[in-house]
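## retry 2 of 3
previous attempt timed out at serialization; input unchanged, resubmitting
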Amino acid sequence: MSERLRFVMAQLNLLVGDVRGNTDAIIASAQQARDHMGAQVVCFPELALTGYPPDDLLLRPDFIAAVERGVERIAAQTHGITVIVGAPVRTEAALLNAALVIRDGSVTQRYAKQQLPTYGVFDDLRYFAPGTQPCVVDIDGCRVGITVCEDAWHEAPVKRALEAGAELIVNLNASPFDQYKYTARESVLRERIAESGLPILYCNMAGGQDEVVYDGGSCAFDGNGDLMVRAPRFDTGLYAVDVLIDQGRWMPVEGDIEPDLSAEAEVYEALVWGVRDYIEKNRFPGVVIGLSGGIDSALTACIAVDALGADRVHCLMMPTRYTSQMSHTDAGLIAQALGLRYDTVAIESVFEQFQSALAPVFAGQAPDVTEENLQSRIRGTLLMAVSNKLGGLVLATGNKSEMAVGYATLYGDMVGGFSPLKDIFKTEVYRLAHYRNGIGAVIPDNVLTRAPSAELAPDQKDTDSLPEYAELDAILAAYVEEDAAIDEIIAAGHDRAVVEQVVKLLHRNEYKRRQAAPGVKVTTKAFGRDRRYPITSGFGRHQG
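## retry succeeded, writing output
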């Protein structure tokens, strides 16, 4: 029996569906932990072999067969260290979201996740059957209880492990980022420790997968609820946790503790990581952005450059008669400061040709939003043409406020393969722009201070059609993210007519959002997998 053990938490960025590549990464990490870090145990995230979430790949027998071959390879190539790794396991009765204990050539024990979430981005019950039994493994005299992700958010799984003799809990995770998640995680882990008195080692995934970003931050708490080790967030690596017997109890020893990030820093890092992994994992050579001189496209360009490097970002300014000289100047200054490729493609003549072609059909009709949308759709067509010719993915630049109320043109400024700001309210766009300027001044003061405008009509301002963004975002946050009723929002101090109009616009534009590009999730209720509403619905027309 040893009186000191070294656990290593492998905080990896894994690719969904790449079972062979993920298996290679797991084997290499286990060997490094054993040979260069002196570890007796290495832990990997939830469903590490498949990446997370594998979705309906789990329904394919050939995919599960590939996982089984991966498990055999891990067992054959990781002698001399205990490996605790997440993988789907097929039994005669069901598919399990499992944690496998692998030691010296074989799977010695298996744990099935007990709590299967179906909220937010999760859909575990579509694929898996819940486990009911604890799993406690003896590792050199330390009895380690194993849990998986959501299990730590409930009392029963840890309690069952304690009753089965566990002296320490290992929790494997694929826990996605949102603005409040990290504080919530630490609070929940301390609740489980207070109930059980057991130390917890929490190993989380890292990296971006479609809309979701996993922020890492793997950590270890002792049996008193004190933080002993915390790995960096938005980074990958192998992080050691030393555990020793202290007054008859196994306790983690204090190690490296990565400092907290500011609210703006963690959101910005999530956006950068989400863009980088979407582009890299889908093998696009770069991105194309319509740079208008406004705040949204400016912030999108900053994120893209920070994610990919300036040489992989191509921006187009596409002016019409309504584009101000200030926008021309500011877009050029942004491009120059970031060092990216910047081209101007004037669309006034194209706009005139479209109007001329439609003149017989539109005879007797006054100009309206049709002509505004036409300019936006011309720009979308040109961006897609550049994408087709040069290979870069178009990044849409719209924000959550605009997407919520439909202040965006379908097949126009909504064009794009990915939408970095899709889950960022307009007021947050400004905060993030100020944060990015604090790292290095890139966005001109004009962009930060002038009234927002789509510049699709003379002297146009966003407030011609919408409430002030501070009010709009407060209403949207309450209704979308908190599921507050209209009367509750009014009671909080908002005008009834404004609230009812915003809610009406929100529901009426669900069809647009259904056709929108995926984007990085940073809130608790992102449009898409998080928030799934019917397109055709009477709700929101009049409530009560």
